[in-house]
Design a protein that fits this description.
about 350 residues, alpha/beta, seven-stranded mixed sheet, 12 strands, Aspartate Aminotransferase, domain 2, three-stranded antiparallel sheet, 2 domains, about 45% helix, Aspartate Aminotransferase, domain 1
Length: about 350
């Protein structure tokens, strides 16, 4: 991992603890992107002649990486656009279960469309709270982030499997933007029906790319009948009328999605299991040290498993002090959020601790 740090110029001048806000650009990806645009510069429209084949290869790369069939893998510029397209296709009489402190791109997107809404509380008993809310409110949809963006509390994936088995008609939609790229994960064997992700954080794909994965037949089930009828009544190329076209309308940027594909290959070379093991060690060390200093909320300390996102007790003054020391964090939820990726080390955590 230490050798990999050379790929990331930001790390030579900064202690970067802010992947939950933005993943880093790295040297080999920059080389790829410059070569891409040089080919476009030289070729013009000729460069785009094979764009559909290329984008299909990106879908395959995404599907292979996360365990989803090609035909159920959709490309989208970001999670929020894809999620709103999903919501636009659902009947407005559906009841949606949300988490009370979840990402606004999840919660506000649901609320502003007029769905019936109920909530489960995010605390040390998160899974129990969800189970009780499902039993009490009988929602049609459960939409949530796998990892909470403010404090890093992560939902147990085995719990989601059991939740789906007990409630087969519950449509489970997960925002995995703060999750994908941190752990080995197979979508097809998970309890999630729809998983969406933006690629600019832990996947290091840069901005303007993301994807949505659908379980078998789910994409068809949530496509409005009016869309299906209109598609059957016209004689357009299927790229305009297939089930994916609702999400992939307009031109998709080969620069952005090529960057995502390149980073998936980059991560695969490192090994996602290797990354997971490294992050597990970093997370345990950080949690122990931060808890000893009484800097973490009680709910985070109590939970056995946690992500590598932490929210420290602190204010603007401490944030400014850290920034002066070139320790890059974010102000979130009334505290200071730090987040660790594979390019971080124990030394990074120690530098943070020495300046708090």
């Amino acid at each position: 991992m230490k050798n990999l740090r050379k790929e990331f110029p930001v790390l030579s001048q900064n202690t970067y603890l802010n992947t939950a806000s933005s993943g880093l650009l790295y040297d080999s990806l920059l080389d790829y992107r410059q070569e891409h645009d040089l080919d476009f510069l030289i070729g013009g429209s000729i460069f785009r002649d094979k764009q559909q084949d290329f984008l299909n290869s990106v879908r395959k790369s995404v599907g292979d990486f996360f365990g989803c069939e090609l035909q159920n893998t959709v490309l989208t510029p970001n999670f929020s656009l894809g999620f709103n397209t999903i919501l636009n296709g659902l009947e407005k009489n559906k009841k949606v279960l949300l988490l009370d402190e979840d990402y606004p791109s999840v919660n506000f997107s649901v609320i502003n469309k007029g769905f019936k809404v109920c909530y489960a509380k995010v605390n040390a008993s998160l899974e129990q709270n969800i189970e009780e809310a499902v039993a009490k409110h009988t929602p049609d949809v459960f939409a949530f982030s796998l990892v909470q963006y403010i404090n890093g509390i992560a939902i147990d994936l085995n719990f989601l499997k059991q939740l789906k088995l007990k409630n087969p008609d519950l449509l489970i939609i997960a925002d995995a933007t703060q999750f994908c790229g941190t752990k080995v994960f197979n979508f097809n064997t998970s309890g999630i029906d729809i998983l969406g992700c933006s690629g600019y954080k832990w996947l290091l794909g840069g901005y303007g790319n993301g994807f949505i994965l659908f379980k078998k037949d789910v994409l068809d089930q949530i496509t409005p009948n009016a869309y299906k009828k209109a598609a059957s009544d016209v004689n357009y190329d299927s790229s305009y009328t297939n089930l994916r076209a609702r999400y992939e309308c307009g031109h998709l940027d080969t620069f952005n999605f090529g960057s995502l594909q390149y980073s998936l290959q980059f991560i695969s070379k490192i090994g996602l299991s290797v990354i997971e093991e490294h992050l597990s060690g970093l997370g345990e060390y950080a949690k122990t040290e931060l808890a000893n200093l009484n800097l973490l909320e009680k709910d985070v300390v109590i939970r056995e498993n946690h992500s590598t996102i932490f929210n420290l007790k602190g204010d603007q003054k401490l944030y400014n002090i850290l920034k002066e020391k070139n320790i890059i964090t974010s102000l979130r939820g009334g505290g200071i959020r730090v987040s660790l990726h594979f390019y971080n080390t124990i030394n990074d955590i120690d530098k943070l601790l020495a300046n708090i």
